[in-house]
Amino acid sequence: MDAHLAFELAGVDAIGQGSLVASGELSATELLDAAITRVEAARDLNAVITDLFERGREQAATLDADGSLRGPDAGPVAGVPFLLKDLGASLAGAPEAMGSRAFRTHIATETAGIIERYLAAGLVVFGKTNTPEWGNHCTTEPSLFGPTVNPWSPLITPGGSSGGSAAAVAAGVVPAASGGDGTGSIRVPASCCGIVGLKPRRARTSFAPGAGHGMEGLVNNHALTRSVRDSAALLDIVAGAAPGDPYSAPPPAAPYLTSMYELPAPQKILIATTSPFPGTTTDPEVAAAVEATGLVLESLGHHVEPGAPTIDPDEVTDAIAVLHTVSNAQLHAMATAHLGREPHEDEFEASTWVMVREGFHTTGVAYAAAIDAVHAQTRRFVTAMGDHDVLLVPTLLTPPPPYALLDQPRGTTRAFFDVEFATTGWTTLANVTGWAAISLPLGTTSGGLPIGVQLMAPDETILLQLAGQLEAATPWASRRPARWVAPVAN
């Protein structure tokens, strides 16, 4: 493919690229070749850590040959190149290190159900993206692969744990990439990298075939995108239960891509700029971005008033810490089975080792109490929302933070999350409650760095409708980070 066109396509979202294939203007193979050109041009970002180029070329050639990508019946993103986060998105036969030195030789033996749905929709998988060890950190700087560079500045983290995916999307390497979110791992990198990050409501997507849910329902899988419509289209692909799932979210009344264009009824929106965790503060530029978004929503006919639900911050933080220690102990057992021996301490990040060791001693009573606390705080949160429909809050309480902050050991897992929540604030409450939440790139700092603004609601449809309205009222598509994919040399 002509290199100039390869870089021109960097600014086209997934639905736009899919329409080029459906119309016959380009083939899936040509789109893939263009994406590979952009991967090579952005190697210094360290966003893509596993190349699956030949696998992608074989898939694209098959799709081009069978003719299913052409015509009005083709799916909206069929034939579009796609990257998988190297955690929670297993692909049989592909490396799956999960950011851990203990899994550096691990090869996935099964394909996750959500990935099967991506493939069935015609997305062309051709690589995997960087992630911190086991998704433990809201930054992406694993010792195994090294840090991913934020395309906006090499001095700030791209966020995590879906930081590799976010950086690749923000830089224009791909229009969309997969992600997962346990305490903000889609929305934090979306905020740091100036893109769209939707965490679906609990049980919207399946964990088949390997699990019923992730971390007692805290974890949700979806994607990072530059446009709201791409997020809606990808959610249509993966939404819905798989056979054997322990529970599932009620199906939407209409496809998300259809309903996002419908004008929503006026919503009752609570707006808060302060942190739900005492002793932490919100940066004034972040608060200003949230307040400006509230004014835009008011101009669109919605009712915005100050206020926020309250939770017991100690109960929430203690519960999150306990659930992580148990999860890490379970992953340690998985590493032991993979290696055929006990992993060594130096095969883990220092902060992971703290969680693993605490997990060895976490009692069943403590684990059950953590689950009960999550449910109790969910009821408290929802009751406090009253008859309000949506919560408008910062994604991060600060501008994009520096490296070496959100991955450091703090002596205990509880202390680790005290530091994380002083930066992330509201994100974890969407995981605790199971509510849907979306981060939108609606603000910038005085230095030109992105600020994410977050909307939370019980369901995704209203969030996508509001996000679509905000995207039209304050468009961000023309914003480009300093490290946008390299231009073609003259």
Automatic annotation (TrEMBL):
Catalytic activity: a monocarboxylic acid amide + H2O = a monocarboxylate + NH4(+)
InterPro entries for this protein: Amidase, Amidase_dom, AS_sf
Root EC class: hydrolase
Domain Amidase: 30-458
SUPFAM superfamilies reported in the protein's UniProt record: Amidase signature (AS) enzymes
EC numbers: 3.5.1.4
UniProt-listed PANTHER family: GLUTAMYL-TRNA(GLN) AMIDOTRANSFERASE SUBUNIT A, MITOCHONDRIAL, TRANSAMIDASE
Family per similarity comment: Belongs to the amidase family.
Name of this protein: amidase
Organism: Mycolicibacterium komossense
